[in-house]
TrEMBL record:
Residues 15-78 form the 4Fe-4S Wbl-type domain. Its main location: cytoplasm. Belongs to the WhiB family. It comes from Actinomadura napierensis. Keywords: 4Fe-4S, Cytoplasm, Disulfide bond, DNA-binding, Iron, Iron-sulfur, Metal-binding, Transcription, Transcription regulation. It holds the Pfam family Whib. Binds 1 [4Fe-4S] cluster per subunit. Following nitrosylation of the [4Fe-4S] cluster binds 1 [4Fe-8(NO)] cluster per subunit. It is found in: Cytoplasm. The keyword Glycoprotein does not apply. The lineage of its organism: Bacteria, Bacillati, Actinomycetota, Actinomycetes, Streptosporangiales. [4Fe-4S] cluster binds at C16, C45, C48, C54. Acts as a transcriptional regulator. Probably redox-responsive. The apo- but not holo-form probably binds DNA. InterPro entries: 4FE4S_WBL, Whib. Upon Fe-S cluster removal intramolecular disulfide bonds are formed. This is Transcriptional regulator WhiB.
């Protein structure tokens, strides 16, 4: 695949471009410090015109670290799990002999 040097990429429009990368890869000494830093990074993402593209990329490649598209690694893991989960169907009720009284079997039928 040929990539033209002049071809634009979604990252060209990211407002975090040129920002301190440490903001988006929180490393702190306390849970409160991490929360503040993550909130600051997410605030930058909230105003970004390519937030959706950034998140889609991070989900596609399985980015394990940092704030991408306004999400933490834990939030992305949750999104990937729910997106990959098969649709849920109601399972049939199975009555095992001795689980219920005869009257409950009759009303269930």
């Amino acid at each position: 695949m040929h990539n033209d040097e002049n071809e634009e990429h979604w990252t060209d429009h990211a407002i975090c471009r040129g920002a301190d990368p440490d903001l988006f890869f929180p490393i702190g000494y306390s849970a409160e410090m991490l929360r503040v830093q993550m909130d600051e990074a997410k605030a930058v993402c909230a105003n970004c015109p390519v937030k959706a593209e950034c998140l889609a990329w991070a989900l596609r490649v399985g980015e394990p670290d940092g704030i991408w598209g306004g999400t933490t690694p834990e939030e992305r893991r949750y999104l990937r799990r729910t997106a990959e989960a098969p649709a849920r169907r109601r399972l049939p009720v199975i009555v095992v002999r001795g689980d219920a009284s005869e009257s409950e079997h009759a009303s269930a039928a």
